[in-house]
Model the fold of this input.
Amino acid sequence: MRRSFINSIFPPNVIHLGIVLVLVSSGSETLALSSVDLSGALVLIREGDLPPGERAAAETLVEEFESRTGIALQTATSWPGAPRAVIAIASGPEVKIGGREVVRRTGDGLPENKPEGYRIWIESADTSAPVVWILGADGAGALFGVGHLLRKLVWSEGAAAIPADLDVATFPAYPIRGHQLGYRNRANSWDAWSPEQFEQHIRELAIFGTNAIENIPFQDDTESPHMVVTREEMNVALGKICAKYDMQYWVWTPAEFPLTNSASREALLAKHEAFYKACPRLDAVFFPGGDPGDNPPDLIMPYLEDVSALLKKHHPKAGVWLSLQNFEPEEVRYVYKYLQDNQPDWFTGVVGGPSSPPLQELRANVPKKYPLRQYPDITHTVRCQYPVKWWDPAYALTLGREPINPQPVYYAAIVNWFSPYTDGFISYSDGANDDVNKVIWSMRGYDPNLPVREILLDYTRFFFGPQVAEPAADGILALEENWEGSLAHNGSVDATFSHWRWLEERAPALRNNWRWVSLVFRAFYDVYTRHRSIYESKLEDEANAVLAAAPEVGADRAMKAALSVLGRADEYTQNSKTRSRIFELGGLLFDLIRFQFSIERHRASGAERGAVLDFIDYPLNNRWWLEDRFAAIGKLESEEDKLKELELIRTWEHPGLGSFYDDVGNIAKSDHVVRGEELNTDILMERNPNPGYWWWDSGMSRRRLSWQVSMDFPAEMKYEGLDPEGKYLLRMTGQSDSLLRVDGDRVEPTLYSKEIGEFKEFPVPKKALEDGKIGLTWDRPDEAHLNWRQQSHIAEVWLLKQ
Done:
């Protein structure tokens, strides 16, 4: 299928043997460069027992080359007798290949001589027998060098070339560059993968600079209906794959019971040792201090010492790591003091994950002998470590927490912002939805200076082909822009959709490439959500206009007419060709990689685990809330009471001339909320607080939409152009307390209901209105003892002119 695609848009006779002219993208420019033809190259390897990475490098080159070009490269251990292009792969400081001494630069300071470093250069590029040298400092370096070559390869059916001036020497900036591929039921896709599929995926990650894989061998006892091998088999298989590609094999192993329970403790240790004994390679055991688990560190440290003793019996070089997630301040201080006072040799390093102390604090307090590893969440969008900045609620309600989420610019910034405190990272992931993000992290972990677009060009060239690499890379960047600002105001969503539709037509043979289909799926989902949101917002406006006639036609009749208007949303969804195409693409992705977009259709493990098809028609107006309110209002005995309730509903977001309404967490409806710095200087959104998106009733809440997005408290709200002689009332909804200040002075409420959806009211002091403007700020109540779900927040604010 891939070959027919290449022929359909780039006929074989366009690329010739020998020296050819190709177009190579570099940054924002496209340069014409002479190239070296590799279509008939011989892969030259060393004789004998090669390091695993070096052996895997040659196998990876041959197999990935053939899968793209259809050319089966020959492998040999001696130089060809006749003139012929050669790709020579070797590693180590002093090597011979085919009886010939490898001429390489010497010096410990050279990039190619540092751990996992490599150099690629071309000897005699202008002859009929060029030699492409791929020399690694070690076996892993040779593998990463082959990955570099494959990423830069300009290929088509029956032909392949590289730029003639290719000469690069590099080594990784950070020694740990990995991703968690936990084989468990919660995964949105790879819980259905075979060992062969995992090997291919892990190889592809290695091509982009990954050197570590983390499995979850024990946690989560729920059965997956998709697994093709047992967890015990996969636990060992992943170790074998990592051994083959000379990659670190880590495991994530919490204790979800009190470690005072000696029977459970011994049972878990026994499970650990059985796994260690069966696993062919194991480099590290990571114990999350909390999330999950609720054990104090004075119990954890002795337990981990026992884990270390068992681990080193079977894997002497392996280490034990601990994160301080969800630890109380005194527990954090305990760990710092324990490590500083004891400096145990059995302990290896510390992990900074979600809800851990800041990385800079960890690095300052943990003894330097212990490395620090980051555990970034790159798979989630809301209720997570790195949420989408001011995400439009329509996306939060439909795409949810674990959608297909390419965010290359955002995550490239996060890598470079936090990595200098660390020795690297192994990301938290639960499926294939964050594939682009994994590549960004891996390549920025190898070279923090790589431009984002260059990384994406490598990604699209390798997986989709050179002929669509540039527009596909720009299409990925455009998908990230789809999530910027108000969805209704983001007309580029339609442009992104048109771009991917054009790419679909240009590259029909990629219709079974799961990465390609994932990106197309997102383009369709985004544009469908945008137009449905615009349409359903208009329906609610029309329904409110109908309610205005209630005093003339009667409350019951007006409510019935308003519901009829809102019901027209069903016709829109039922007749949408875009929606039908989304379901087709979702079904295709399930067939290709078992991506589970629905609990009912695909047996997804949970609604938050990427089940976006189950939320594709979630109302993007207040239809459900209105249905329930109308039912309650219809039971009122007094027509006067009914009309009063309907008038409140009708004017909810439009309180009249001189009054103002803010849905404070909605980017499109929060004109008076002060927003602070951008991500480039406030990457954690501390000075520009981010909204939170609530998850009630498994994502199917019937509450008013404005209550489902909130802020703990806005940094500030500002109003200008007010009547200095007027009287104003501040009204708000939210949860629990609202310690409000107007122009810096605390104000007292006249109404103070603490439940979600109920009102608090504060008269505005007359003195504050003298200059025709006011500023609102909030004191934070002391709620450290409460779970975040019970803590105070603000959802809506009205400034009502009396």
